[in-house]
């Protein structure tokens, strides 16, 4: 829709370095959040790469032009007090208890949901100097991470015999919001809030 409104890229012949630079300027002007700028390019890149595969364009301007991925500055996280309320609120439903434990595991490891979902203690954790360390690549970005499993994270793992009870994302987030409501926490809680906390 934005491309149509903009009107400078209508045909494959319009896919030039100059127009991609102008597209970048437009994205900076229009983006509501800084990470949206990267998404403007991400989507367009996919189509241009496919167009090149089918021979519609000879050159991909993104082979030469590279745009910095902006980090979001509006990350939500729980304060120490909020995290305390989250941990202490009384829960009886197993699904909520499991969601809370997974959230706490994310808090104590910094793992994103996708990385927690692919976490396998037996194959990934190595004991070094009395502590367990995990080295792996992030599922989403491919960036490497290297973490020490803190005692609190180990407690969660031991509780579930080292197999985390990871729920489907929509169920997990719904359960986290139910805990948020019961704990009287104002910050909107989702799986990504754990990583930032």
Can you walk through the features of this model?
The protein is built from ten helices and three strands; from the N terminus they run H-H-H-H-H-H-H-E-E-E-H-H-H. It is mostly helical and 197 residues long. Strands 1-2-3 form a three-stranded antiparallel sheet. Strand 2 and strand 3 (144-148) form a beta hairpin. The longest helix has 20 residues, at 34-53. The two termini are 36 Å apart. The relative contact order is 0.13.
How would you concisely characterize the structure shown here?
This protein is mainly alpha-helical. The chain contains 10 helices and 3 strands. It has helices spanning 2-6, 17-30, 34-53, 80-88, 94-109, 113-117, 121-124, 151-159, 169-183, 191-196; strands spanning 125-128, 131-137, 144-148.
Which features characterize this protein?
197 residues, mainly alpha, 8% strand
Q: Order of strands side by side in the largest beta sheet?
A: 1-2-3
Extended strand count: 3
Residue fraction in strands: 5-15%
| Molecular shape | elongated
Ranges with pLDDT <50 over ≥5 residues? none
Mean pLDDT: 90
Radius of gyration: 22 Å
Order of helices and strands: HHHHHHHEEEHHH
Number of helices: 10
What order do the helices and strands come in, and which of them pair?
Elements: H1 2-6, H2 17-30, H3 34-53, H4 80-88, H5 94-109, H6 113-117, H7 121-124, E1 125-128, E2 131-137, E3 144-148, H8 151-159, H9 169-183, H10 191-196
Antiparallel strand pairs: 1-2, 2-3
Helix pairs in contact: 2-3, 5-8, 5-9
């Amino acid at each position: 829709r934005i491309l149509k409104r903009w009107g400078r890229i209508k045909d494959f012949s319009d896919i030039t370095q100059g127009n991609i630079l102008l597209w970048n300027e437009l994205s900076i002007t229009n983006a509501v959040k800084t990470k949206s700028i990267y998404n403007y390019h991400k989507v367009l890149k996919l189509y241009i790469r496919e167009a090149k595969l089918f021979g519609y364009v000879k050159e991909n301007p993104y082979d030469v032009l590279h745009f910095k991925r902006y980090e979001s500055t509006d990350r939500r996280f729980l304060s120490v007090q909020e995290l305390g309320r989250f941990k202490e609120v009384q829960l009886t439903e197993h699904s909520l208890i499991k969601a809370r434990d997974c959230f706490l595991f994310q808090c104590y490891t910094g793992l994103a949901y996708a990385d927690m979902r692919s976490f396998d203690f037996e194959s990934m954790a190595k004991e070094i100097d009395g502590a367990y360390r995990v080295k792996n690549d992030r599922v989403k970005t491919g960036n490497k991470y290297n973490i020490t499993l803190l005692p609190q994270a180990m407690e969660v793992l031991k509780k579930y015999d080292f197999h985390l009870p990871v729920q489907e994302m929509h169920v997990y987030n719904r359960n986290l919001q139910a805990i948020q409501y019961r704990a009287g926490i104002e910050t909107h809680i989702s799986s990504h809030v754990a990583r930032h906390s």
